[in-house]
Specification:
Strand order of the largest sheet: 1-2-3-4-5
Helix content: 25-40%
Order of helices and strands: HEEEHEE
CATH topology: Trna Endonuclease, Chain: A, domain 1
Shape: globular
CATH class: Alpha Beta
Largest sheet: 5 strands, mixed
Structural class: alpha+beta
Oligomer: single chain
Low-confidence stretches: none
Number of domains: 1
Length: about 120
């Protein structure tokens, strides 16, 4: 399986996980000129959640959450601001989560970073 297909499969697992946890999926693969937000969801209290999904396909790679570095955080914040502006949600509560999809488990880090 190529990298793109593995990434899509990981994003699908993450979306299913969020649905099982009571989230509502608002958008997937939201694209801007700066990149893509993997998933935008709404949690039970109405907070809009911008989710970065990272996948590991082997045990030797470590936890992929460590790949949500400062550069990626800045990029996600910029894209999230664009989404909020486009949808007239600039005052809506939101946060950034990261989900690591590994062969044997899923790690969900709420409030992964502040922007």
């Amino acid at each position: 399986m190529n990298t793109r297909k593995r990434g899509a499969a990981g994003e699908e697992r993450a979306a299913e996980y969020l649905l099982q946890k009571g989230y509502r999926i608002v958008s997937r693969n939201y694209e801007t000129k700066d990149g893509e937000i993997d998933c935008i969801a709404q949690d039970a209290d109405g907070t809009l959640v911008f989710v970065e999904v990272k996948c590991a396909h082997g045990r030797s790679m470590g936890n992929p959450l460590f790949r949500v570095n400062r550069r990626k955080q800045v990029q996600l914040a910029k894209m999230a601001r664009r989404y909020l502006y486009e949808h007239a949600l600039s005052t809506h509560p939101c946060r950034f989560d990261a989900i690591a999809v590994m062969p044997d488990k899923i790690d969900h880090l709420r409030n992964a970073f502040l922007a």
